[in-house]
Amino acid sequence: MEQLRTIGRELAMGSQGGWGQSKEFLDLVKSIGEARSKAEEDRIIARELEHLKRRLADPDVPRRKMKELLLRLVYAEMLGHDASFGHIHAVKMTHDESLPLKRTGYLAVALFIDERHDLVILVVNTIQKDLRSDNYLVVCAALTAACRLIGEEAMPAVLPQVVELLAHPKEAVRKKAVMALHRFYQRSPSSVSHLVSNFRKRLCDNDPGVMGATLCPLYDLILEDPSSYKDLVVSFVNILKQVAERRLPTSYDYHQMPAPFIQIKLLKILAVLGSGDKQASGHMYTVLGDIFRKGDTTSNIGNAILYECICCISSIFPNPKMLEAAAETTSKFLKSDSHNLKYMGIDALGRLIKINPDIAEEHQLAVIDCLEDPDDTLKRKTFELLYKMTKSTNVEVIVDRMIEYMINITDHHYKTEIASRCVELAEQFAPSNQWFIQTMNKVFEHAGDLVNIKVAHNLMRLIAEGFGEDDEGADSQLRSSAVDSYLRIVGEPKLPSSFLQIICWVLGEYGTADGRYSASYIIGKLCDVAEAHLTDDTVKVCSHILAPISFVTYFGLFLSCVLYTEAYAISAILKIIAFEIARGRKIDMLPECQTLVDELSASHSTDLQQRAYELQALLGLDKHAVESVMPSDASCEDIEVDRNLSFLNGFVQQALESGASPYIPESERSGVISVGSYRSQEQHETSAHALRFEAYELPKASLPVATAQASMSMPTTDLVPVSEPGYYKEDHQTSRSQPSGDSLSGEFGVKLRLDGVQKKWGRPTYSSSTPSSSTSSQQATNGGSHSDGGGSTSSHTRESSYGSKRQQGTEVSAEKQKLAASLFGSSAAKADRKAQASRKTAKESPLSEKATVTNATPPPIKEQLTPAAPPPDLLDLGEPVSSSAPSADPFSQLEGLLGPASATPVVSETPATVSSQTPDLMSIFSDDVQTGPSSGSTEPTLGDSSLKNSQKGATAVASKKGPSLQDALQKDATARQVGVTPTGNNPNLFKDLLG
Amino acid sequence: MIQAVMVISTQAKPRLLKFYNFQPPEKHQDLVRSVFQLLSARPDSVSNFVEVDAIFGQGTKMVYKHLATLYFVFVFDSSENELAMLDLIQDETHFINSNSSLFTVFVETLDRCFKNVCELDVVFNFNKVP
């Protein structure tokens, strides 16, 4: 073997020697290949560069040798070393007479420098000369170089010649000229905009190669402005037809496909042109159908063309027949074992469902498979697909999945993207506010620093404003459950700062609102947060840099954007203390809180300092003052700014009475150098360019009083510092000013500016159709046994059972089986819908059986519990009632049941199911709960929780869809504590996704 | 359009780099490193496509093929078809194989032949991309 290797090596060298390289070069390449470390490689290249520098400077080097030296230079630069000393030699070589040397020169120049480099000027002249050459190979080389080296400035120098070359007798030159012109267009569309008609002309070129090259620039142009190229649709279709019918020379065939790259380009162009244009699309159907028929699914390139066809069909005006063909091909892709084809299939599916969402139904399992696949690319593509098909019915599962995936990825770029998608979906489709808050909590916890700050504001506003309904009770319940969950979370290390800020704000605003937590407990927690962050050096440094500049310059902006966590924490403490005082309770300063305040009052950040001092000042105020400074739960109230400062009228009046001179507006003042005009006067004087020798004027006596007055009543005066009206004064005369003045600064510091925040949050309640349908179907499946509670209860139980099911893993398999039995039985009639499902069955049965096995609940138990149920074999669960096909594939039945759309053709024996046209997945779960208690001791928790929930449901808001708020958030927190990530790893997943 | 063609060894050494949008030489090594990190993290028998928005900008994709000790990488934007690009890579490797048809047995030799191929390859690619 070793011997063979040596022989091979020698042969390799021999053949390479034949290309004109010397032994030196080969040795260099070899030694680099064998280098054991980066350092060794660097040493070798450094030595080589030394050598090259010497040799290149040598005037006696033969030209052929020069070429090799240049290639070695390229090689060294590819390995990441600076070879700029040799660039000029590359430029020189472009002047050479010999074609190979010239080409090498152009190649090296194109690799070394770009169009902005100084040396390009030296090359432009050569290119110009070469474009005029008689040798078409030289012209080609020059055109190739022009693509790389001619920038916007140099373009006019070569443009006329390039356009001339479009009519060159040699097709290779014409092709290169088209490419060069395309490149110029990409660089600077405006410089060549008058020449784009040339591309149209070249489309009719006799040579297919030139025509093919023209498609690239035309595609770009058509993307820009499809409407002005509509006249070409027929030509494009004709060309495509000719290509597909193999009218091109066989030399354009590739893997027995006629000119596939040209076909792909044409299909892309047609997709753009036919988009939303019925007439243009009409021309295309025939040829697209032909291509589909001839489609070759065995080779990559054949599949590439088919994929382009699907893209084209999904883009142009829809045609049912075409869509059918596209869907068929897509399913072939999805069923393929090749990951590449699956990827294309998922992408194609994503395009097709835009036109017909039902197509996805058929491929539920394939989609789930892709989601579980270890291939990251495929997973991402699948998430993209799910993102496109999210509806209010499946948003919970999809967003759950996304978050689960998001937690595990490290790629920041993608994490940001998927986090923003989660937020977007949650905002758009959230079924309930509780769910929204929970979801946002998760997103913030795991990707808090990557999410747009606006989202955080949105969440805080939601908690503050409630749901815009009049139900105060629900709002406060929501808030206290939010407080609960945050108190649990807040101790966790390494929470993103934006999430901590939300937590601080909510705790400050509502921590003590319901009286379940003592103020000192919450203050203690908040102190911990602040302390933890104070020890964090980066935060400190950041605050050092940011605070002095930002605070002074961008007070408002700063407050709303770059507040750091300590500020939130201290403000929260401030609020809690204020609320306590307002309630008339005595507040004891915790020692750690005192330390924190002391530390912050000496902070480098003036903002933190101010907040600390405010806190201290607040402690000295009496109850009434505090109440008006920090009104409880007033974060949603508008802050009214009295621009006229009318509250100062009394003060002004008093001052006037005691002999102050009245305020004169600046414009009316005369003879007084007002502060505003001072500067202009100064400028005026300096412009006179003369020294003044006369004595100064005597100062006017009344001036200071006037300006003082001005500053009080005219805050808009530019250079006069506006004093905070009476904020730090204990003066009772100005106590009237305190509320608004203080609420101005206090509220402003604490409250976020909510105006201008995106108001995307819609859908306060769940769409009404689903609950009702779930109720009806549930009643139907249960034989009307469940009659209490109506819509709200059913949805409550549903949610809770769903949640507990996830938490407790797979403890519900007995129910699941029963459920499956009833489901399969009732829809047996449509078993024949998918005959191809044999493969799926193989996949499905382990999937559903997995639940049984992991649960260690043997089928006999289930049998024992529900004696009336059919035998435990999953594949044989058909109810005796169903007349047709007792051996029907259960999966396809399940599949049919789950999608509401596919459920329509069901001819069922059970009248109950017919009555509910959409057997919602929700009903499945409520059915679960129904059977929960009956299944006895196997799962007391589930029974308990469902009982508790239904009790609560009676008392709680009937209009809300979710279970009680506390339960929802509690569930979240419990799951977090136990460390259980809720997984949807069960057959229900695809129902949720695709139902 | 195709934005870059790269051949990187499994030891993260560049064997061939060609950028069709000029990249300053000092950036080359960074790009090679980030591409290699991406590739080496991918198990075998997964798809050959990777979305590389984070490295090469919005909407860019990468098709790669792992042959012996080399990664062949094409980076391109939305105006190209992924499967077609994959075939281009295959084509390229065929092309190189046919030039050294004697040595296809030897993975290492192929690797070695490759190092010299920069000129050859560029000639090969220039007619594909404007």
From TrEMBL, chain A:
Extent of Basic and acidic residues compositional bias: 830-847
Major subcellular location class: membrane
Superkingdom of origin: Eukaryota
Keyword Membrane: yes
Keywords: Golgi apparatus, Membrane, Protein transport, Transport
SUPFAM superfamilies per record: ARM repeat (SSF48371)
Cited Gene3D superfamilies: Leucine-rich Repeat Variant
GO biological process: intracellular protein transport; vesicle-mediated transport
InterPro entries named in the record: Adaptor_Complx_Large_Subunit, AP4_complex_esu, ARM-like, ARM-type_fold, Clathrin/coatomer_adapt-like_N
Stretches for region Disordered: 707-747, 760-995
Functional note: Subunit of novel type of clathrin- or non-clathrin-associated protein coat involved in targeting proteins from the trans-Golgi network (TGN) to the endosomal-lysosomal system.
Subunit note: Adaptor protein complex 4 (AP-4) is a heterotetramer composed of two large adaptins, a medium adaptin and a small adaptin.
Similarity remark: Belongs to the adaptor complexes large subunit family.
Protein name: AP-4 complex subunit epsilon
TrEMBL record, chain B:
Keyword Thylakoid set for record: no
Single GO cellular component term: endomembrane system
Gene designation: gb19133
Record protein name field: AP complex subunit sigma
Entry keyword annotation includes Membrane: yes
Pfam families cross-referenced by the UniProt entry: Clat_adaptor_s (PF01217)
UniProt record similarity statement: Belongs to the adaptor complexes small subunit family.
PANTHER family with a match to the protein in the record: ADAPTOR COMPLEXES SMALL SUBUNIT FAMILY
Residue ranges constituting the AP complex mu/sigma subunit domain according to the UniProt record: 1-129
UniProt subcellular location: Endomembrane system
Alphabetical keyword list: Membrane, Protein transport, Transport
Gene Ontology terms describing biological process: intracellular protein transport; vesicle-mediated transport
